[in-house]
């Protein structure tokens, strides 16, 4: 599969295109540098767990903004109030993470073996776990979609429900990762994966979120990246079809269904989706026009101050983390930093059971969005803020530099010591697909992830691995 050379060519073409568009030279240099540094270990087949945050940061802070703004014909500095300052802050936060990831790799290289990762390479264990995990994962996801509490009228008031099943939805990603690993090795399972993809498509429509089906597409892409293989014709066609369905049908349907799903069960939501398709004659163009009209009604998000790609109505701002950094910089001049205390409270609420602490529905992203006018106070339509913007909002540049050391580095080091190099590993597929959401997290959300979901995931992986052979001799991958 193409490596650093292809990455260099891709970045070079994007830079040339943006020079033609008149993009700010400093911003262009920053985003190109972030893309090159962040993706290098991934495309070179040298990925460790700690590099996931760096690669994800490169995707959201460099590569996707270059692609999206370039595709729309917009210079990088448009719709930003402090373009160069925001780019400088973004680069500072990224470089801190990059250095921490390098330090975490250096420490973890002292280990000779990584038994948990090795265990999941055993074909017998993969075959034993694949179908049971897939079935239980789909069941748990279905229960989570059906029973989880939902916000009422887009404000921070939840209806009745039970959200505990959401803690175990990673089992489905693990099952898909094992299935893709088996397929890559010629052990079958394509039909089962296709059926799982169809089920997740229906689940995404029923839950009114893109995440369920998007994660299926991500697992397929992660398999190609981790095993560094050129896709065969069946997988290439399957990935292309899945991506097209996600972009042309699922994304607009999710938006058009919003506000019409109250009181509807799973079957009712699927019927609503089908009726919308019929009303628009199954035409992607008609769905896109209706989605654009819907999105223009959100005054905070669709405006010159609230969107990085305005006047485009594409719902893509979440993939470009320079926007929230710029928005926080606008607010800091008037309000100053929020301080760490409110975020420490959010971390405690996220980690401790309700028996020990009274919980609210607001999270760190809400605090940043409300304080700096990104969203109207009380609105539950959470924007993606990211680690650097939230650290800047809480403690200024000191937060951008120090909070990654306190929160991200322990997580990177722990993951590296447990999992080791991820290239050509089924666990690598799982972690790459599971970790795509990490760059979107505020620093308090990442702390909660490290202290609760990550620990739970490790316990479950260890328990499942005990079903396999106790002694494995799997060669370590090269290029660690």
Compute the number of structural domains.
1
SSE-based structural type: mainly alpha
Gross geometry: globular
**What fraction, in percent, of the residue positions are helical?**
55-70%
| H and E string | HHHHHHEEHHHHHHHHHHHHH
Q: Which radius of gyration do the C-alpha atoms yield? A: 22 Å
Low-confidence stretches: 470-480
The largest β sheet comes out as: 2 strands, antiparallel
Distance between the termini: 18 Å
Mean pLDDT: 84
What is the helix tally? 19
Number of strands: 2
| Major beta sheet, strand line-up | 1-2
Strand content: under 5%
Organism: Plastorhodobacter daqingensis
Protein name: O-antigen polysaccharide polymerase Wzy
Transmembrane segments: 26-43, 48-68, 88-108, 129-147, 159-179, 191-207, 235-257, 384-410, 445-465
Keywords: Membrane, Transmembrane, Transmembrane helix
Layout of secondary structure:
Layout lengths: L3 H18 L3 H19 L7 H21 L11 H26 L6 H5 L3 H25 L3 E2 L2 E4 L11 H15 L5 H18 L3 H17 L5 H25 L8 H14 L4 H12 L26 H14 L5 H11 L12 H8 L15 H33 L6 H9 L8 H9 L1 H13 L15
Antiparallel strand pairs: 1-2
Structural features, described:
With 480 residues, this protein is mainly α. It is 65% helix and 1% strand. It contains 19 helices and two strands. A two-stranded antiparallel sheet has the order 1-2. Strand 1 and strand 2 form a beta hairpin. Helix 2 (25-43) packs parallel to helix 4 (83-108), helix 10 packs across helix 11 (266-279) and helix 14 runs parallel beside helix 18. The longest helix is centred in the C-terminal third of the chain and has 33 residues, at 387-419. Residues 470-480 have low confidence and may be disordered.
